[in-house]
Amino acid sequence: xxxxxxxxxxxxxxxxxxxxxxxxxxxxxxxxxxxxxxxxxxxxxxxxxxxxxxxxxxxxxxxxxxxxxxxxxxxxxxxxxxxxxxxxxxxxxxxxxxxxxxxxxxxxxxxxxxxxxxxxxxxxxxxxxxxxxxxxxxxxxxxxxxxxxxxxxxxxxxxxxxxxxxxxxxxxxxxxxxxxxxxxxxxxxxxxxxxxxxxxxxxxxxxxxxxxxxxxxxxxxxxxxxxxxxxxxxxxxxxxxxxxxxxxxxxxxxxxxxxxxxxxxxx
Length: 267
Known about the structure:
mainly alpha
C-alpha cells in the first residue's frame, strides 16, 4: 500500500509543480490520506526530492532551447546568454534559502499559512490578468539581466509554503512586462537550478539514515513525478498560448478554502 501512496504523491507533485497552484498546498491537503508512515524527516525529504525528476522533465522538454553546444553559432550564443540570466535570477533564492530554510520549515509548513498563501496568490493572479496590459517582452531571450534578477526576487516569495514557485515567478515576470509564454518559460528554466539546489540541500540534511525501502519509495515517486510533469508541461505551454491564468487564480482560492476547512474540521 505504501508504494501506491508513493505513486499517487508522485502524480500530485508532477501535476502541480509547474502550474501556478502550489504543489505544497496539494501535498498538505492529501498528506493525511497518503501518509507514507516513514517519519516526518523522510516525508519532508520525499516531498522535496520528487521535485527533482519533475525538473528533469523541463530539461528534456526544452532540451533544444537549453543545450548551448549545438546548432548555429548565434543560437549557441543566445542559449549561453539565457543561462547567464538564469544564474543571475537564482542568486536571491540561494542566499535567502540558506538563511531562512530551517526557520520556514519549522514555522510555516502548516495548513493555515499554506491556505492564506493560496488565497492571496489566487487574488493577485486574477487581478493581474484583469489589467489588460500589453506585454513588452515577447521572447525569453529579450529579458534584460535586471528583469531576470527581479524575477529571482519574486521567486523568493515561494519560500512561503503555498505561494507556489511557479506562481510567484510567473506573476513577477508578468508584472515586469513579460508575456504569458515568456513568463511560463522562464519560470520553468529558473526551476532547474533552484530545485536542484533545494533538493541537494534537503537530501544532505536528511538522507543519511534512509533504508532501502525508503530509497525505493523515492525512486518510485520520482519516476511517476517525471512522467506526469512532462505531460503537464506540454499541455500547459499549449494552453497559455490561447488562454490566461485566471482559472488558476480561482482554483487557488477554492483550494485555499478547502485547506482551511480541512484544518478546522481536523482540529
